[in-house]
C-alpha cells in the first residue's frame, strides 16, 4: 500500500533574483508529480539538482524611453531534479460497501 520511488523532473524557472527562480522551481515539483501520479503523495524529498541551462539577462530600463536609466537583471534556469516520492496507493485499498436507503416519507411518520 505504501510505496517509494525516484522520479526525475525537468523544470524551468525565471525571475528577477536567483532566490525567486529557485522558489518558483521548487514550488512546481508537487504539481508536476500530482499530474503524473494519481495516488496520494505523502512525502517528496529532493535528492539532487542538476543545472542544465542558466542565463542572466541584463538590460537597461528607462522611464518614457529617455529618463532615469537603470539596469535590470533577469534570470532563467532550467534544472533536472531527482526526487524520492512516497505514496499511498489508493487503488489498492479495499472498501467495504453498504447502501442505506433513506426516504423523505420515513422521516414524516415519526
From TrEMBL:
InterPro entries: DUF4312. It comes from the Bacteria. This is DUF4312 family protein. It comes from Thermoanaerobacterium thermosaccharolyticum (strain ATCC 7956 / DSM 571 / NCIMB 9385 / NCA 3814 / NCTC 13789 / WDCM 00135 / 2032) (Clostridium thermosaccharolyticum). The lineage of its organism: Bacteria, Bacillati, Bacillota, Clostridia, Thermoanaerobacterales.
